[in-house]
Amino acid sequence: MDRNIAGIILAGGRSRRMGGSDKPLLSLGKARLIDHVAARLKPQVAILGLNANGDPARFAGMGLPVIEDTLPGHAGPLAGILAGLEWAAGQTGCGWLASAAGDTPFFPADLVERLAAATRERPGAIAVASSDGRGHPTFALWPLGLRDALRHFLVEPDNRRVSAFTKRQGYVEVEFPMIGAGNQKIDPFFNVNTPDDLAAAERMLQSLRP
User: Fold this and answer.
1) What are the angstrom distances between the C-alpha of 183 and each of 70, 191, 208?
2) Taking a C-beta distance cutoff of 8 angstroms, is the pair 197, 204 a contact?
3) What's the pTM?
4) How far is CA 128 from CA 15, 106, 173, in A?
């Protein structure tokens, strides 16, 4: 755990491909999807928050601060990252923010450690996770000093892609290996978007258990 890094779980989406249900609260094994994500990220950061919109009471049992988007109009994960940056700057005393998507239950236990190591080689750069040759920009380490630049970026309605902002600001990519599970390889950044994905995640969970 790095005491200079806060963490934010991005759970502010509208879950359209899950029929509009509250995706983070769906069951996966004996816990909820959001609980798996929190259990992985919490040990890696000094303090953890949850970005979500709507009634925060539905997350009350998690014991985490719930941070709403500070921009109107459901501007996507970048709005959640902005809310997290502003929260971390104002409330935590940390200098960095690690972000993780709230629908991705198997991401690496050394995610933040490896992203932080990459930023030491490229001071001031955003560190972005990748696997199997594909970037995952919602899994990244952000300098808190980017929050003003991000707010200005999001003023334009067409600026919603996380990758567009990271490319503009400069980033370093950190490749993570696939996970061995029985006779198959699993992408550690597999995310749950549909009921079929949730069923696949259940099978993965079983195969990853010792």
Assistant:
1) 45, 20, 11
2) no
3) 0.92
4) 24, 17, 5
Helix, strand, coil distribution of the chain in percent, nearest 5: 40, 25, 35
What are the backbone angles phi and psi of residue 87, rounded to the nearest 5°?
-65, -50
Distance CA 179, CA 156 (A): 38
Q: What does each of the 210 residues of the chain score in pLDDT, given as a tens digit?
A: 668 999 999 997 655 545 556 888 999 999 999 999 999 999 999 999 999 998 889 998 899 999 999 887 777 899 999 999 999 999 999 999 999 999 999 999 999 999 999 998 888 899 999 999 999 999 999 999 999 999 999 988 777 899 999 999 999 999 999 988 777 888 999 999 999 999 999 999 988 876
Helices (H), the chain: 33-41, 77-91, 111-121, 147-155, 162-169, 195-208
Straight-line distance from the first to the last Cα atom of the chain, in angstroms, rounded to the nearest whole number = 25
Cα 41 to Cα 44: distance, rounded to the nearest angstrom: 5
Can you name the residues that pair with 29 across neighbouring β-strands? none
The string of DSSP codes covering 71-117 is SSS---HHHHHHHHHHHHHHHT--SEEEEEETT-TT--TTHHHHHHH
What's the rounded Cα separation, in Å, for the pair 188 and 184? 12
